[in-house]
Amino acid sequence: MAEQYQPTGSTAAGITADIEAAVRDGKLPPGAPLPPVRRLAADLGLAVATVAAAYRALRQRGVIETAGRHGSHVRHRPPLTHRGPRALPPGVIDLSSGEPDPALLPDLTTALRAVPARPSGYRDAGPCPQLADLARERLAADELPPGAVTFTSGALDAIERGLSVHLSVGDSVAVEDPCWGNLRDLIAALGMHAVPMPVDAEGPTVDGLRAALRQGARAVVVTSRAQNPTGAVVSRERAALLRELLSAHPATFVIEDDHWAELATDPLHPVVGGTGHWLFVRSVSKPYGPDLRLAVATGDEATIARVEGRMRLGAGWVSTLLQHVVLGLWEDPATEHAVARARETYRARREALLAALTARGVRATGHTGLNVWIPVADETAAVTALRDRGYAVSPGAVNRLRSAPGIRVTVGSLVGEEDLELIADTVAGLANPSTSAFR
Q: What does the pLDDT look like over 402-420, one tens digit per residue?
């Protein structure tokens, strides 16, 4: 905690507001510790219960988290005002963002011609029938169970709406460990609890899912392919075992995220469909561009009806203009070639980095996707050493619940052989991790 900042307030609400303002203004940066409850209560002359209530409210909003004896600290990405991308030192290459390479995204020129001359009004708004039909064809080709189809403003929007219409504050959600950092933060912001499921090369382990269900998880989130950050892919055998286990818990809400979509080289082996309520989400961000805020969402009739109903009370619908752009991309042969080129380029970059690390005795994973996950003994030391050599990477703390330390390297901007060699040399020069790439 910054020395100049001391929480103030005479009530739980006052303390909560003061700490939120400090986080918003940067007085309490991500990861900053908060005073122990009893010490702050003594400093402010308040009852311990008053400070405890303030901390509890901040945890429920996802602003802070508590780690047992390590106390409470500000979350790495609290759900407060976004102040834009973090500034990097001059000359530092950003390998931390998880962003696709802009040079590998398709040209939108042809797709824009599919946009109607006049936008839809309130009466005609909603899922574009042509896009929905084409989405159903693509989903059926991947052997997804038949279900209703709608569109949301990206994958995380679909996941948030799905969780919101099925779960309540205080409920538990089983997530992969390590997992997508945004998902972990979203669950905290919803006032729900993330229950870790260990991940190996074939996805969430069966024992991990079984343990999470025993701990009362009411929902499960699984990544089909290109698991962020490990690159794991759910195999046919693993999918069958997970579905079998979930079928014995029919009230569990299952969400499956296939964000890598058309960039995937591995076939899809769906996990959804064995429970009463399920949601399968496929974003267009990675193949076609993050600014295309659209994801295809399919699921059981009740879930999709609830998601659409909730959308109409708020955002309303995904812009029909945007839907027609995506329709134009899906129907454009040149776009298909561009996606195929991107698929091969990302594969080559991942494999080149993995080969360089392996040659130096460093174990890492990244079978598919945009990221390579490297176990390290000390995340801070690894991140600092790479930054000093001109590369910004992501500390695994934003992804982990109980799994071992690691760093995530995004290959989106990793193009030179010199970069590969220097990164591999730097990691190998640290304490060489001897543990498995998955824990």
A: 999 999 999 988 778 888 8
